[in-house]
């Protein structure tokens, strides 16, 4: 049993492929829907794990890009799969997923990490310079991609014109790449836990053989994720409809699934009094979700039929603005307690409640 547990990074992707082979093109009964869902969640987790191994081996800044690209492939695969199979009502799925990712990372991951970390260590200390720079980048990306489409006039409705979409995608990608180089090259010390130097923070890289195995299993995991997402998509949409939730809640489900591994990693870091690592994970995930997903979806619209709705509604913009105001007040002092964690979790609860009951 212990050997099986230790070998999960290798066994789970292979199990996911087997499940994919037996369920492709089949009408799934309830039991198979559950098995496919478990295999999909496992494939997502192993993909992120193997991406982290490869990233650690090749070093920065390319390591961060490998991890971000792997997570983005998963997110885009889920979005595009559901958009292709869901029809016109999925025109806002990319917006709903990216917005959900921002709310979950900036409120959910930050809030849980602060609550658990401060319960153990009373006050959580972090670098305000690095966390503030990451938060500023997230706020800019979110405004460019999710707020501006509501107010532009070139196309009716909360949509970008082709030229505006190209600009937003290019600006998002450029800002993300600039941040990666700032974090990993020019100002690495801004993003390390307080009192920890770069040599102490980073463990020795894995052996080349382990990195090559992880690269192969990463590809297997991504293939399994894309295939299982296609198999599971009708069940996801049917489940949301059966629960009486709005169609937009599908985006919340996708974001929760994709961000699950980062949430566990951030909570573990906070429990070890590494709140800066938790903030890096939360804001970095939000940044990748916008800075890489929006350009990828923009390219995918070449093949997708129908409009691409990106602009947020008034309620969503209020929640987004309040999230950034609260996050600024949390980050600027460089110290936070359970109270700040509770405030962020209250915002997450408001987002989830209004997503179900708009």
UniProtKB/TrEMBL annotation:
<dbReference type="InterPro" id="IPR052946">
    <property type="entry name" value="Alkaline_pH_Ca-Antiporter"/>
</dbReference>
<feature type="transmembrane region" description="Helical">
    <location>
        <begin position="210"/>
        <end position="229"/>
    </location>
</feature>
<feature type="transmembrane region" description="Helical">
    <location>
        <begin position="7"/>
        <end position="24"/>
    </location>
</feature>
<keyword id="KW-1133">Transmembrane helix</keyword>
<keyword id="KW-0472">Membrane</keyword>
<feature type="transmembrane region" description="Helical">
    <location>
        <begin position="249"/>
        <end position="271"/>
    </location>
</feature>
<feature type="transmembrane region" description="Helical">
    <location>
        <begin position="339"/>
        <end position="356"/>
    </location>
</feature>
<dbReference type="GO" id="GO:0015386">
    <property type="term" value="F:potassium:proton antiporter activity"/>
</dbReference>
<feature type="domain" description="Sodium/calcium exchanger membrane region">
    <location>
        <begin position="30"/>
        <end position="184"/>
    </location>
</feature>
<feature type="domain" description="Sodium/calcium exchanger membrane region">
    <location>
        <begin position="214"/>
        <end position="356"/>
    </location>
</feature>
<protein>
    <submittedName>
        <fullName>Ca2+:H+ antiporter</fullName>
    </submittedName>
</protein>
<dbReference type="Pfam" id="PF01699">
    <property type="entry name" value="Na_Ca_ex"/>
</dbReference>
<feature type="transmembrane region" description="Helical">
    <location>
        <begin position="310"/>
        <end position="332"/>
    </location>
</feature>
<feature type="transmembrane region" description="Helical">
    <location>
        <begin position="283"/>
        <end position="304"/>
    </location>
</feature>
<feature type="transmembrane region" description="Helical">
    <location>
        <begin position="97"/>
        <end position="118"/>
    </location>
</feature>
<keyword id="KW-0812">Transmembrane</keyword>
<feature type="transmembrane region" description="Helical">
    <location>
        <begin position="30"/>
        <end position="50"/>
    </location>
</feature>
<feature type="transmembrane region" description="Helical">
    <location>
        <begin position="62"/>
        <end position="85"/>
    </location>
</feature>
<dbReference type="InterPro" id="IPR004837">
    <property type="entry name" value="NaCa_Exmemb"/>
</dbReference>
<feature type="transmembrane region" description="Helical">
    <location>
        <begin position="163"/>
        <end position="181"/>
    </location>
</feature>
<feature type="transmembrane region" description="Helical">
    <location>
        <begin position="130"/>
        <end position="151"/>
    </location>
</feature>
<dbReference type="GO" id="GO:0005886">
    <property type="term" value="C:plasma membrane"/>
</dbReference>
<dbReference type="GO" id="GO:0015385">
    <property type="term" value="F:sodium:proton antiporter activity"/>
</dbReference>
């Amino acid at each position: 049993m212990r050997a099986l547990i230790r070998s999960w990074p290798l066994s789970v992707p292979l199990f996911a492929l087997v499940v994919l082979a037996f369920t492709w093109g089949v009408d799934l009964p309830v039991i198979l829907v559950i098995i496919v869902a478990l295999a999909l969640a496992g494939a997502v987790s192993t993909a992120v794990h193997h991406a982290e191994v490869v990233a650690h081996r090749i070093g920065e800044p390319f390591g961060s890009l490998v991890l971000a690209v792997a997570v983005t492939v998963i997110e885009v695969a889920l979005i595009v799969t559901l958009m292709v199979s869901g029809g016109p009502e999925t025109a806002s799925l990319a917006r709903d997923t990216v917005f959900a990712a921002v709310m979950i990372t900036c409120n959910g991951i930050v809030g849980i990490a602060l609550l658990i970390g401060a319960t153990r260590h009373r006050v959580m200390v972090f670098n305000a310079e690095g966390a503030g720079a990451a938060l500023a980048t997230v706020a800019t990306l979110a405004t460019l991609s999710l707020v501006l489409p509501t107010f532009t006039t070139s196309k009716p409705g909360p949509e970008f014109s082709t030229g505006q979409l190209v600009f937003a995608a290019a600006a998002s990608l450029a800002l993300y790449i600039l941040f990666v180089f700032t974090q990993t090259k020019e100002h690495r010390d801004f993003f390390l836990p307080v009192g920890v130097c770069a040599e102490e923070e980073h463990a020795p890289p894995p052996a080349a053989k382990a990195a090559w195995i992880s690269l192969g299993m990463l590809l297997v995991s991504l293939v399994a994720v894309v295939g299982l997402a296609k198999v599971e998509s009708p069940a996801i949409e049917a489940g949301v409809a059966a629960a009486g939730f709005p169609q937009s809640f599908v985006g919340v489900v996708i974001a929760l699934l994709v961000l699950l591994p980062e949430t566990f990693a951030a909570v573990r870091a906070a429990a070890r009094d590494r709140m800066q690592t938790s903030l890096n994970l939360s804001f970095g995930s939000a940044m990748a979700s916008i800075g890489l997903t929006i350009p990828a979806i923009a390219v995918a619209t070449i093949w997708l039929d129908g409009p691409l709705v990106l602009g947020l509604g008034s309620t969503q913009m209020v929640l987004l603005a309040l999230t950034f105001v609260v996050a600024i007040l949390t980050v600027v002092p460089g110290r936070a307690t359970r109270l700040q964690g509770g405030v962020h979790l209250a915002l997450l609860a408001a987002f989830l409640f209004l997503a179900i009951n708009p």
